[in-house]
Amino acid sequence: MLTPKILIVDDDLRIQSLLKRYLCDQGFVVETAGDGEQMTKKLERSHFDLIVLDWMLPGEDGLSICMRLNNDENSPPIIMLTANGTEDSRISGLEVGADDYMAKPFNPRELVARIHAVLRRRPQTLPSAIPEINRPPMTFGPYKINFSERCLYKDNDKLNLTDNEFAMLKVLADYAGTPLSRERLAYLIDGRTHAPLNRSIDVQISRLRRLLQSNPAEPCYLQTVRSLGYMLVFNADSE
Length: 239
Prior knowledge:
This protein is of the alpha/beta class.
């Protein structure tokens, strides 16, 4: 089982340090951010299993951040922290998409228990996103898919992927050279049948293209096959 990776978003450096040290001692991988801007950059570069988010932040506050992240299906679950422990505040946090809510001051042991509870409630990792320890890397152009690390390299730079992004890339690599319809892609990723008009696949394809192409408007490796779907091409001319 992969070690859960937690992102702490809090502008109080003392709380950041204390929580990071305690959660690391409990077996989590932990990174920190001081505001919404730093958080967004961290989320763009790496996958996190859960966010511990403070309500009162400089710039964009935690409530607004939570609402924004809740509109993205790839965002991790959120436990919101606040010095305001009133019932109205707790309800407001839950209404905008927080998975749990804790008032400061709190017992770190309780936070750990709540983290475990939230992670248990979340869907398990997509089967197609599970690392394959013994599978050799697959290369094309300047890219290398590392199936054991569950990530993508461009030259020597590691590009961390979300579960959905890696699952999509893995399925496309498994069927390289074969056009896959949206419905077929969705089924191969999570084993469920999706409505034909569901455009979540298109959104994920767009995200992958931004990683795989210097100009996503002129796709080289991840191509659209008219009337058929999408296809990963390994022998395309380099950009």
